[in-house]
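Got a spare moment? Tell me how you read both lines of this record:
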Amino acid sequence: MKLVEFVPPKPHPLWKLCLQMGITEVIVKVNPDLTGLPDPWKVETLKKIVDGLAAAGLKVVGLEGDPFDMSPVKQYGEEGDREQGTGNREQVLAHYRELLESMAKLGIKLLCYNFMVGTGWARSGVREGRGGAKATYFSLKGTPNVPLKLTKDRIWANYEYFIKAVMPTAEKVGVRMGLHPDDPCLPELGGYARILETVADYDRAYSLYPSPSNAVTYCQANFKLMGADLVETAKHFGKRIAFIHVRDVEGDKTDFTELFHDQGTTDQFELMRTYKTLGLDVPVRGDHVPEMEGDRLLTAECIPGYFTLGRLFANGYLKALLKGTGNL
């Protein structure tokens, strides 16, 4: 497997630190808010981002997250377009297909995506963790109770339309789309139903368009919070796994705290041995780390869970895991 990092698309201390850790392959998000560049679906735009990282010695092997506003596809759909007067679902889908084509032209073969409506991954704040580190957490108790705006049936219909519109292009150009679980994996959040909260939901999503390009982002903590056995679920998915997020949590899906990578009850060595037995050769990265002492001296402002020092610790731990199980 390939140990990769999720790095900002603009110059950042993590770029050089990746090289110092021996990591040369990276995942990026290309949303214009992060890059300052318009039209992320165009090959010219992607090439600027890829070339900038290549000049620093880093190779982009995957994209992660929504590259542009996907609400016309996820939230509104055909009926909603008419109601909202936006009418641009087909345009957004055309941009998505062009993004896949542009990725393939640049040798980027992985797209980690999600179908969370209204909000993406959600956290309530930070709690004090080991040694006073600031660990991100989620608690449903602190989440406003909002009336349901979109049902599961409606979101499933939007997802089916989306996957059937873009998967033929992904298949044609050889890009694997790794579907990320809902995070947190609750029946609904913020007034919107969530449709990817169980392993059975994943099987339903795959059945809509069976293909090697219709793949799984195996975000370990999310599947743990679903109540799934991580080893057996990895075996269930097998080669459908295209990307692995390594992290652990304590608690349940209604109230959990994210941990350092050497904490928690998950047997990471057993999981890594399982990936080896399955013959997986896919990118793997650490995900969501606590903020450590001195982090803000490196990056004064950062999204909680993505400060720098905890990622140095995580990558050292992951390299040992991967090497010790013959995956690296």
Observations:
- The radius of gyration is 19 Å.
- The longest helix spans residues 152-173.
